[in-house]
Amino acid sequence: MTVKINENYLLLKSSYIFAEIAHRVDKYQKEHPDADVIRMGIGDVTRPLPKAVVKEFKNAVDEMGQADTFRGYGPEQGYDFLIEEIIKNDYTPRGIKLDNDEVFISDGAKCDTGNIQEIFGLDNVIAITDPVYPVYVETNIMAGRGGPMGEDGKYQGLVYLPCTEENDLVPALPEEDVDLIYLCFPNNPTGTALTKEQLAKWVNYAKENDAIILFDAAYEAYIREDNIPHSIYEIEGAKEVAIEFRSFSKNAGFTGTRCACTVVPKELMGYDGEGNPQALNPLWNRRQTTKFNGVSYPIQAAAKAVYSPEGQKEIKESIDYYMKNAEIIRESLTNIGLKIYGGVNSPYIWVKTPNGMDSWEFFDTLLDKAHVVGTPGVGFGPSGEGYFRLTAFNTLENTKEAMNRISKLSF
Amino acid sequence: MTVKINENYLLLKSSYIFAEIAHRVDKYQKEHPDADVIRMGIGDVTRPLPKAVVKEFKNAVDEMGQADTFRGYGPEQGYDFLIEEIIKNDYTPRGIKLDNDEVFISDGAKCDTGNIQEIFGLDNVIAITDPVYPVYVETNIMAGRGGPMGEDGKYQGLVYLPCTEENDLVPALPEEDVDLIYLCFPNNPTGTALTKEQLAKWVNYAKENDAIILFDAAYEAYIREDNIPHSIYEIEGAKEVAIEFRSFSKNAGFTGTRCACTVVPKELMGYDGEGNPQALNPLWNRRQTTKFNGVSYPIQAAAKAVYSPEGQKEIKESIDYYMKNAEIIRESLTNIGLKIYGGVNSPYIWVKTPNGMDSWEFFDTLLDKAHVVGTPGVGFGPSGEGYFRLTAFNTLENTKEAMNRISKLSF
Predict the structure, then answer these.
(1) What is the ipTM of this complex?
(2) Structural domain of residue A130, as residue ranges?
(3) Does residue B250 share a domain with residue B195?
(4) Do A144 and A107 share a structural domain?
(5) Are residues A147 and A272 in the same domain?
(6) Which CATH number belongs to the domain containing residue B353 in this structure?
(7) DSSP conformation class of A293
(8) What is the pLDDT of residue B1?
(9) Res B19: pLDDT
(10) In the record, which positions carry N6-(pyridoxal phosphate)lysine (chains A, B) (predicted)?
(11) Which of A308, A329, A357 is the last residue of a domain?
């Protein structure tokens, strides 16, 4: 006998996109030590935690240092004091009713969107938009739902829903039978959003076809337009067909602090092998209580402070700051004739590369001629080829400077 | 088509042991509102975070509140500043050499011991000691390695290694072929430890039988005797056959703060379907980078402070405090003629119930006659029937009072 590895891991054809980017930038910097490279590639925030958050974070750390206020193991599902703030602020005002035990606090939407597939059988058919956040794809490959990658760059067992210039980046409903559909809107990487009517089509599709939508709302705080839903549960009946993921990473700068939540409504059902409905809420609860031990108490106290009046004011300022950058990027690139998407309800701008350049050619051109780093769209899936992602997370000064440099290029 | 759930979840026969305990205690308190119930059941610490930890924790939160020291996404594997302290303090002094990229920081040993099985194939045979920390069992059932539970209370696909009075709680080597062996020493729940010679037998077994040991060292800080290994890598050749899990939960009071680490040596190999060796270190790295986003920066800074001279002094005081409780429990129970195990190199005392009582009978007796709550051993596996766990994590005063009460009982 020998120990067998999970061979599905060997199927992963990682593009190692961020490693390749780092490699090319390092090489360029060595060859051009004076080049002032501006990074607009990784989707990470740069502005500090709000003061209101820092204050409560530290207060909670002090509590942990005193015997009478010390807290050991907390509930794996999160503290009610945070869950209640989330419901009161993010859901109730939109007419969405949730019980506390439908909201699960976690250490990140990456973890939750990666782990959620565990509660589903291996024989479900998975649909993803293309381009896509790679975690949805890779966690299903690792579990054995995707099979090998074909020459077209697609894992053969997954259903890809292309988002390209042809459909204005709005994915069409699947033609095949699919069971689980990952949707992220406002979208990473394309920065586009779905209107209420557009999202309602997906909810109806899921109802009619007994599918479930895994809805990643990590960027909802960047929505500026009225008709864009902040939660999929704004769509009537969505609680019967959707799980929703939220995060404090992008709205409150928690990328290095780690806190998020996942909503699993109690009416949401899967089916066992005999066709009996099985509620998904207790399955996720079982998953979390068995494999997770809750989010650090001081971090949950910090996240609660996001909802204080001062916290809300501060996060609004940060998001306004990033969205001002997004506007500058949009205007600058539009002015020089590039076709762009996104940046209106999200911090991402998705650029159609000019003159039929492929994603990496455009990457090399921007690095070499403007010393600006972005992310080649092909890194997010085959339909990302010929596109390029820029983020609004750098400073205003760097964003302006980057746009000045790019504006001087001729394509 | 309908969405299929992971049916393995339906195989879980949860004893809901802590829920059942809570239920019985609540009922008892309602019927006896004046009873001063002392809880010695759950393995959770009670003493606050060390002052040195609180200080660095708060400093790091302040850094997160300033633009020039703010940190966004950190390495999924953890910051080198913490990894280096772990290696320098926990491994180098014991003659164990580790590279930084063999140590993975996480938010808890529960998560890591639960997730580690993902990198292994579903066709491995799993061995567990019995009684056992339920996470090892249940995460394998959820993945599909355990099958249904038989009438003997054992999942039919798992290999149980009984630890009972007959073998002095030292598990015998498996007679069947097994691939993955979970060992936790000092043990939760029995509180017993293995000597270097005893552990070496397991390492040799694993080498000779191409098995891998998943070694949970969460309680190593409680070791008091010289010949008890703090790390499995103290045994020669163990890096070829063992993964080790550590935690800041029990040594530094991090149960509510969340930080741990897992060591996956680079020489450790599994095999693919064609019999080719595949290093496990990059597989775990892939798992963590895909499904995890790193531990909060302030928490890693706090964990680093555990290794400062002040931090070391403070955690030693806390552990001494708990171990004094353990000694009181040991002496008191021995004096009244109970047979006990553990409590010498761990905060757990494993009591053989008197007069052939079953675990729950003894639970009810202690609750009713002494108002003391412990954990029925049967909750940790069928071989735990007829045993009972008490923990040393309460206050000195409560521990003394509980022992006074129990000492007055006659069995």
Answers:
(1) 0.97
(2) 54-308
(3) yes
(4) yes
(5) yes
(6) 3.90.1150.10
(7) -
(8) 66
(9) 81
(10) 250
(11) A308
CA B284 vs. chain centroid, Å, equals 20
pLDDT band (50, 70, 90) for residue B12: very high
CB-based contact, A39 to chain B, within 8 Å:
no
Residue B165 sits in a domain whose CATH number is: 3.40.640.10
**Tokens 């069971």 sit on residue:** A179
Q: Is residue A336 domain-resident?
A: yes
Q: Which of A47, A54, A139 sits opposite B290 (nearest CB)?
A: A139
Rounded to the nearest integer, the mean pLDDT of chain A is 96
Specify whether the CB–CB gap between B379 and B372 falls below 8 A: no
A12 and chain B in contact, CB less than 8 A:
yes
Minimum Cα–Cα distance from A213: chain B residue: B3
* Residue among B51, B270, B294 minimizing CB distance to A5: B270
Q: Do B61 and A54 touch (CB under 8 A)?
A: yes
Top residue of A287, A296, A299, A396 to mutate, by most chain B CBs within 10 Å, is A296
Whether A207 has a binding-site annotation, put simply, is no
A286 touches chain B (CB under 8 A): yes
Q: What percent of chain B has pLDDT over 70?
A: 99
Instruction: Decide: residue A335, CB within 10 A, 0-12 exposed, 13-18 middle, 19+ buried.
Output: exposed
Which whole-number Å values give the CA distances from A320 to A184, A292, A317, A393, in the listed order? 21, 35, 5, 11
Average pLDDT over residues B327-349: 98
Which residues from chain A sit within 8 angstroms of residue B62, using beta carbons? 54, 58
Asked if residue A1 has pLDDT above 90, the reply is no
- Contact A61/B61 with Cβ under 8 angstroms? yes
For the stretch A99-121, pLDDT in tens is: 999 999 999 999 999 999 999 99
Q: Share the mean pLDDT of chain B.
A: 96
- B27 and B113 part of one domain: no
pLDDT at A48: 97
- At residue B17, the pLDDT reads 80
Residue-level pLDDT at B43:
87
Overall domain count for chain B: 2
Quick one: pLDDT at residue A15? 58
**Are B108 and A293 an interchain contact pair (Cβ–Cβ within 8 Å)?**
yes
pLDDT computed for residue A138 by the predictor:
96
Q: Are A6 and B118 in contact (CB under 8 A)?
A: yes
Among candidate residues B270, B285, B308, the one where a domain is terminated:
B308
Q: What is the pLDDT, as a whole number, of residue A44?
A: 93
Same domain, yes or no, for B58 and B155? yes
Residue A151 located in a structural domain = yes
User: Do A101 and A178 share a domain, yes or no?
Assistant: yes
Domain identity same for B32 and B123: no
CA max distance for chain B: 67
Strand extents, DSSP E, B124-268: 126-130, 159-162, 180-184, 212-216, 242-247, 260-263
B-facing residues of A in 172-191 (CB < 8 A) are: 177-180
Separation of alpha carbons A7 and A305, rounded Å: 44
